[in-house]
Design brief:
With 260 residues, the chain is an alpha/beta fold. It has helices at residues 3-10, 15-21, 27-36, 54-61, 73-82, 118-128, 148-156, 177-184, 204-212, 215-220, 226-237, and strands at residues 44-48, 65-70, 87-90, 103-109, 129-140, 188-196, 199-201, 241-243, 246-249, 252-259. It is built from eleven helices and ten strands.
Amino acid sequence: MSTKTVQGKLWSISPQNWSTHFELYFLPLYKKALQELEISPDTMLLDAGCGSGMFSSMAIDAGAQVIGIDAAPGLLELARQRNPQNNFMEEDLEAMPFASNSFHVVTGFNSFQYAGNFRQALSEAHRVLKPGGTLVLAIWDKPANSDGTDVLKAISTLLPPPLPGTPGPFSLSEDGKMEEYLKETGFNLINSIQISCPFIYQSLGNGIRSFMGTGPAAAVLNYADKKQVEETIAAALQPYRIVDDIYFQQNSFLLFIAKK
């Protein structure tokens, strides 16, 4: 089964939880990316791994002409609801259905690390960018820099050991790894920025729903019942209870900006 098929199914199991309770915490990433880009009405932007379309909406509002692709039909349905005038397509990062030199900008927020062949996905981004075009990639920072790691690790204890090479949320977070891949693929790294994305949950239930919207939690449902997964997430969130039923996690992400 292809990576697209596997990841598309996982991220379509609970798309509303992702959209409502998780994706909004990426707003600092999205805002910084738009600040770094020079968007105009002529800007053709491909949101690769667009999810439920929040960044796509922001780029559209900034004036860009946006096409979004994602492997998850459940998330794409939400993206289309948000942006009914734009084109959102169920496609693979490793085989983008566009002509070479088509886009001024390609963005990938927490998406490229889930490609089965990251180098191929990065090569496709390079191919579809116009000469001088800009690539914007965002990934989780190293696990030690994010509290959310504890929840994701707890979820993973319910899974069998992963096969070697299985993509995951931190697969590209090691120092220098992304820089090496970008150079190998022909990109010129312009900037890398560490960005803080606080996660604030006004109830334990919202925290559980947030992580239940992720691909790792969806994968666990093949091996454990929903109640067990929710109880595991709840236990992992307990150290982050601040007061009353409010939970706070400090998480760090890396934003890379490169030119073709």
